[in-house]
Amino acid sequence: QVQLVESGGDLVQAGGSLTLSCAASGRVFSINAMAWYRQAPGKQREQVALISRSGSTNYADSVKGRFTISKSSTENSVTMFLQMNSLEVEDTGVYYCSAYGLGSPAWGQGTQVTVSS
């Protein structure tokens, strides 16, 4: 099993920047890809960015050019980051990290990002 813990959520003004972190532990060798999702109030959870084991990335159209996903790996842990620049009010939501590998995806508990106008 993989355990995920997000951190870094905060209240920030529009136009500002924020970096989220997701620390993965447990059977990290089984992880093939990791992703950031977000869920705004009253909306469905959507994938924001994904990074594969090889480091290839994919972004939602709404965040391309503003967000950057990255990861840092050791033998026993993986930390994934989401650098968010030029934040917009529409980026407000709970951000979750997810890890894909063997079996069902693992999820973190989420971290709140609030962007004020």
Keywords, separated by commas or semicolons:
117 residues, 11 strands, four-stranded antiparallel β-sheet, 0% helix, single chain, mainly beta
List the helices and strands and how they pair.
Blueprint: E1 2-7, E2 11-13, E3 18-26, E4 33-39, E5 46-52, E6 57-59, E7 67-73, E8 78-84, E9 93-100, E10 106-107, E11 111-116
Shape, please?
globular
Number of strands: 11
- Our measurement of the CA-to-CA distance between the termini, rounded to an integer number of angstroms, reads 40 Å
In DSSP terms (H or I, runs of 4 or more residues), the helix count works out at 0
Taking pLDDT < 50 over at least 5 consecutive residues as the criterion, the unreliable ranges are none
Rg result = 14 Å
Rounded mean pLDDT score = 96
Helix content: under 10%
Strand content: over 45%
